[in-house]
Specification:
There is one protein chain. The protein has 1078 residues and is mainly beta. 3% of the residues lie in helices and 53% in strands. The protein has a domain at 3-236: Methylamine Dehydrogenase, Chain H (7 Propeller), CATH 2.130.10.10. Its main location: cytoplasm.
């Protein structure tokens, strides 16, 4: 049965809703005007190819019309606003598209006027264009078909085009005046443009929205905006206007293609006669009046040509040193252009006016050929000399083939340009510079190498402070007389032994983590570094200076942090340290990144993949522009025109220069109206409490899309689900997500920054640790990865449980349940960023897939009086697919780890790492006892609660739909044989299908969720059994994970606080939260 709701707006504050029920699925609804009744009516199409005429005000069915083709429909659409001209299009399960007009009669069937057959799968969607002359159908065969309805002939002539491009089923299609837009199971919307000449269509754009399933679309009346809704709950708005000129097949398709003059027109006669050919060696775009940039080219002959936007080419100069070799760099706005020569000289060209470049200013900086140049403007300086203006001071970093790096500064005073060598830099070993960034206002220089390393230099205060003109004049012009700067800290292999292509250096927006207690180094500011590489990854780092060892972070160099000492600053505090910490890592492309550009606080990336150049917003990864262009050419430039918020791309091809403008505002019309969470199943969820923020939750989510997400849930916000950070490192589905509560499971937002650790595991036996930092910015870093225990790709980790947390030694013991019937105990060393296998169940005691784990810990000295050396009794409970629960004593492992800093092995097993070399791992796990027949089938979930003394409460849920509850005395348990017997209380058919998750609220109440989409609260008592006290249905399909958040206590006259309400968060295909009063 389906329900249609009609809404009548009578006044701004009054409305009326009338429901209409149909006996089967409603496939389409449409408004029509009835002249006889002089009112608007609703017409519905049902899944049995039948139309119903309804009064929306009363809900009464006035008439019906049955199509003669009595088949099941997957889709339907109406055209026409008057009842007498109504046309119905039906998409059938037999791959047909039918066109028929309703005959409102209970006796006669309506005849099919047109039957269109071309699809090779069921038809999921049909849609008319605005004038009803065209129909678009979407199908299971991954195609769209466009039909011309103006033709009277049959289906062969009606089919106009078949559109391919989606990688999965196509759910929906709409026909616009100039475009066809489709939505697909592959998580994208695609756009095809009409070709007026050939009556065909060409692919124009692809809008990626989610991992899987964009279900539906709608378009506004002006056909300027398309809105799409996806399975992850997201709603996106796409601008049709942003499509034009966005994707080009070749650079020859660019609007502005400029040919260079013949070489005889600019070359000296003697040079022209000696040269057989000429080509562009290098080029740049520079600022001019207006929006279009000027062009400067360095020719292979040594000539430098200049062209204004509306002028002709003219020769700027002829330098024989440019012949056959030139390396070029410029500022993003083109104010200064630097060209390096083979003999180590550098020529500078200044944009002196709105239409002219200066004569070159030459200086020999190196003894070997120039291999790299970086030019950046020095902004924000407070000069006492009024002649010096902002953007007239530049820093230049150059390197040569002998790996020498020189930092020099250029300033303009009136019409005079001054060029001073500031320092040379010492790089270790065979390091070759690939890119650089320098900022005198922050006090840092960052070098990126060709082998993926990042080298940071602190700049002395006397080189940074330019408030007095005399401080520049004291530096000699000779490079040999310049001071040598030493490296402060290095972050090697930051981009996995690939070239670092770009570095952005700017002042950090975060508050400082440490107070600098001396004024001697106040010019050094906490800064952010953004890097890109040939590996297609963008990373963000933080630089922090501290005069004492940091207490909020691991001070030793680790996987994501390096530390060193200030090397060039005249400090009396010799122990002042510098830290560089990697905060975020995000893959932007499967190919390589050519460069990053930071404009108005936004970072844009130039990427190359499969011989295509794409300009992307690095944060949202929305495409701004793409063109077929091979990266190996490397003959491209990016120029920013301030004021009009536009980028210009420039390309060269032999004797041609092409330019293309990109409006940075155009992509802003494409935005995410509502955020999504995950379009695939969420399998693991763990909550992080937020101190002092009621009804605000932070959760970690993982699922079938292999992505770990950190989300904030706050119903008071406009967007109640906000993704704070996400990362994908798992190669397959994530099944378990666990926040390490031993380090404090609560974030105190009053802190400047707070960090916690998260464990994830799942398919392919992958086990990973993540470090989550929440401050003004949220960062998520992969902290450690467990080695592989086997090469069986089918094996997977089913559940995780925290066994012990050692604050002093920065270690965590974690138990993992495997699908191959084994259990492994891992020791995570946070300081060393590594997992070590402590023990494993080598006997595979369960004999079948282990599904669930839970740990219970008893305070020191109460569990076993005969073992005085055991300070803590730690018991592990495991459930498997055979319905049994095994109990394991982990006390020895926990106490050895706490007291000796390591776990004593009882024997050795072998594990296999990625190099196929066997390695020794820890001891052997053996179960203490087993409890049979807890469930008739799989034990999906276990939870434990420590009662008074040594009593432990155990609750479990299984595939048999039952809940089980029993209590054990830990002291008696460890002294019994393996045939331990206990009194199990069961609640049969607690859920209508399998119980997926179960959690204790306190010692006498627990919460469960099942695949029947029900949440239940149960009261448990050793003598009275199990009783349901609350039940609610969830809208989350296939719920598989649950966590409890913010248990609220009400203080009474007694000493104890009683929990009177709890927030429950359920995850599956989507997430939903409930506030439950107990």
């Amino acid at each position: 049965m389906s329900l249609l709701l009609a809404v009548e707006i009578k006044e701004t504050t009054a409305y009326k809703v009338v429901g209409h029920c149909a006996v089967n699925w409603i496939k389409a609804a449409h408004w029509v005007y009835c002249l006889q009744r002089n009112k608007w009516l609703a017409v519905l199409a049902s899944a049995h190819n039948k139309a119903f005429l309804c009064d929306p005000y009363t809900g009464e069915t006035l008439a019906s019309a049955q199509c003669e083709e009595r088949c099941i429909l997957y889709s339907a659409a109406f055209y026409g606003r008057e009842l007498d001209n109504l046309v119905v299009a039906s998409g059938t399960v037999f791959n047909h598209v039918l066109l028929w007009r309703p005959c409102w009669s209970e006796i006669n069937d309506s005849l099919v006027e047109k039957r269109m057959q071309a699809h090779e799968g069921v038809v999921f969607s049909v849609a008319f264009n605005r004038d009803g002359s065209e129909l678009v159908s979407a199908s299971d065969d991954r195609t769209l078909r466009v039909w011309d309805l103006s033709k009277n002939s049959d289906e062969d002539d009606c089919l106009v085009a078949t559109l391919y491009g989606h990688q999965a089923r196509v759910w929906s299609g709409i026909a616009l005046k100039e475009y066809i837009v489709s939505a697909s199971e592959d998580g994208s919307c695609r756009v095809w443009a009409r070709d007026g000449k050939n009556c065909g269509f060409s692919a124009k754009d692809s809008w990626k929205q989610c991992k899987k399933n964009v279900w539906t679309m709608a378009v506004n009346d002006s056909e300027e905006l398309v809105v799409s809704g996806a399975a992850d709950g997201s709603i996106c708005v796409w601008s049709i206007g942003s499509i034009a000129g966005k994707h080009l097949q070749t650079t020859s398709s660019l609007d502005s293609i400029i040919d260079l003059p013949a070489q005889a027109d600019y070359l000296p006669h003697s040079v022209a006669a000696a040269r057989k050919s000429e080509h562009i060696r290098n080029f740049a775009l520079y600022s001019c009046s207006g929006t279009d940039p000027g062009i400067i080219t360095v020719m292979d002959s040594g000539c430098v040509l200049q062209k204004l936007p509306k002028g002709d080419w003219k020769m700027l100069c002829f330098l024989p040193g440019f012949a056959g070799y030139s390396m070029l760099a410029s500022t993003l706005s083109g104010d200064l252009i630097a060209v390096g020569m083979r003999d180590g000289s550098v020529a500078l060209f200044f944009c002196t006016s709105a239409s002219a470049l200066s004569e070159p200013l030459l200086k020999k900086l190196h003894k070997a050929s120039i291999q790299h140049l970086t030019v950046v403007p020095v902004k924000g300086l407070d000069f006492k000399n009024d002649e010096i203006q902002q953007n007239t001071v530049f820093d230049l970093v150059t390197s040569d083939s002998d790996r020498m790096v020189v930092w020099s500064r250029i300033k303009q005073v009136g019409a005079v340009f001054q060029w001073h060598v500031m320092a040379s830099l010492g790089l270790p070993g065979r390091t070759r510079l690939a890119t650089a960034a320098v900022d005198s206002m922050l006090g840092w220089m960052v070098i990126g190498s060709q082998n993926g390393g990042i080298y940071i230099f602190d700049l002395p205060e006397n080189l940074c402070n330019l408030s007095a003109r005399s401080q520049l004049d004291k530096f000699a012009l000779a490079t040999k007389d310049a001071p040598v700067l030493d490296m402060a800290v290095c972050f090697g292999l930051a981009h996995s032994d690939t070239d670092i292509t770009s570095i952005i250096l700017y002042e950090s927006s975060q508050k400082r983590l440490d107070s600098l207690t001396t004024n001697q180094h106040k010019w050094l500011k906490q800064s952010s570094i953004v890097t890109s590489g040939r590996d297609g990854i963008v990373q963000r780092f933080e630089i922090v200076v501290s005069v004492q060892a940091k207490t909020t972070m691991i001070v030793e160099s680790s996987l994501h942090m390096r530390k060193g000492q200030l090397a060039n600053s005249p400090l009396t505090d010799s122990f002042a340290e510098i830290f560089i910490e990697r905060r975020t890592t995000e893959r932007v492309t499967a190919g390589s990144i050519g460069g990053l550009y930071r404009i108005a606080e936004q970072v844009y990336a130039v990427t190359f993949y499969r011989n295509r150049m794409v300009i992307k917003d690095a944060s949202s990864q929305m495409e701004l522009f793409s063109v077929a262009f091979a990266e190996r050419n490397r003959r491209w430039r990016v120029h920013y025109v301030d004021g009009c918020n536009s980028l210009y791309l420039g390309f060269i091809n032999k004797l041609q220069v092409s330019t293309c403008p990109i409006d940075l505002r155009s992509h802003l019309s494409n935005f995410r109206l509502a955020p999504g969470v995950s379009s695939l199943d969420i399998r693991g969820i763990s909550a992080i409490q937020v101190v002092g923020a009621n009804d605000r939750h932070i959760v970690a989510l993982g699922g079938e899309d292999c992505v770990l997400r950190i989300c904030e849930l706050d119903e008071s916000l406009e967007k109640p689900v906000k993704c704070l950070a996400q990362a994908r490192r798992h190669s397959s589905a994530i099944r378990c997500v666990l926040c390490v509560s031993g380090f404090g499971n609560e974030f105190d937002l009053s802190d400047q920054e707070s960090s916690r650790y998260i464990l994830t595991a799942g398919a392919s036996c992958e086990l990973r640790c993540w470090r989550l930092c929440i401050g003004q910015q949220v960062t998520l870093l992969e902290w450690a990865v467990a080695p592989a225990l086997s090469h069986d790709s089918e094996s997977r980790i089913m559940d995780l449980a925290i066994v012990d947390v050692n604050h002093g030694q920065q270690t965590i013991l974690v138990a993992a349940a495997y699908s191959d019937a084994s259990i492994c105990l891992w020791r995570l060393d946070l300081a060393k960023n590594e997992f070590v296998s402590v023990a494993r169940d080598s006997s595979y005691a369960h004999g079948c897939c282990v599904l669930s784990l839970s740990v219970a810990k008893i305070a020191a000295g109460t569990a076993n009086s005969n073992a005085s050396d055991v300070s803590v009794t730690t018991t592990l409970f495991s459930g498997a697919t055979d319905g049994r629960i095994f109990i394991w004593d982990l006390s020895q492992f926990v106490n050895d780890s706490r007291h000796r800093g390591h776990c004593c092995p009882y024997g050795y097993l072998k594990t296999i790492d990625d190099t196929s070399n066997s390695r020794e791992i820890g001891g052997i796990l053996q179960p203490v006892t087993v409890i049979d027949n807890v469930h008739q089938s799989g034990v999906n979930t276990i939870d434990t609660w420590v009662l008074q003394g040594t009593q432990i409460a155990i609750a479990s849920g299984g595939d048999d739909n039952n809940l089980s509850y029993f209590t054990l005395d830990c002291a008696d348990l460890l002294s019994q044989s393996k045939d331990f017997d206990c009194d199990i209380q069961r609640y049969e058919n607690a859920h209508a299908s399998s119980v997926q998750q179960l959690k204790f609220i306190d010692g006498c109440r627990l919460c469960s969720v099942g695949t029947d989409q029900r949440i239940a609260i149960w009261a448990v008592n050793g003598s009275c059994g199990i009783e349901m006290t609350f039940m609610e249905c969830t809208q989350v399909a296939d719920p598989s994970a649950m966590t409890l958040l913010l248990a609220r206590c009400t203080s009474d006259s007694s000493a104890n606080n009683k929990i009177d309400s709890v927030d429950v968060l359920v995850a599956g295909i989507g997430i939903e939260s409930f506030k439950v009063k107990l």
